[in-house]
Structures are given as structure tokens and as C-alpha cells.
Design a protein that fits this description.
mainly alpha
Length: 113
Amino acid sequence: MFTTLVILVHVIVCLALVVIVLLQSGKGAEMGAAFGGASQTLFGGSGGSSFMSKLTTGAAVIFMITCILLSIAGRHGFSQGGASLMNSAAPITQPAKPAAPAQPQVPAAHPVQ
């Protein structure tokens, strides 16, 4: 249950982080100019850089926390009730050694007539 919740939050934050980064304007780009307005007025008069950078930072922190939680959960086996996939795997058996080759039967020489 815990791992499922963390995975769900992780996937949502991943998608949100991608969208947030794609919405940000590049350095020196005028995002509002594409819509006929002045630069940086799309997100308000003060610009969207502070809001978008805080949103990116928050999503990145949540992403890192969920990554750490998932790695801890995987290490301690929380996702499978403490069982490892390797415990349920069939053991590897050594193949049987091949039988020693039989001595070739050499036919008796026929006398020449």
C-alpha cells in the first residue's frame, strides 16, 4: 500500500515536472510576445519566473524524496512483502557431463587376394 502510494505520487510529479519545465520560458525568451503582449506579462506584471522557478523547485524536491523512498522500499522489500524475486527463482542445475566417447571399432584388415 505504501509503495503503491509513493509510485502514484512519483508518476504524477514526474509528469508535472515535465509540463512545468516545458512551460518555462528560455533565457531571454519573450513568452508573452507570442500572444501579442509585453514580455513576461503572461504570468503577471512581475513575470512568471519566480512562480515557475518555485514550482519547479517544489516538484524537483518531491521527485527526489519519492526516488529515495522508492529505493529504500526496493532495498527492504516493502513492495513484495519482504520476498525477493530471486528467492522464488528456480535454482540453476549443472548439466550432466557427457558420456565418454566409445572407442571406435576398427574393422579387421581384409587380406588382399
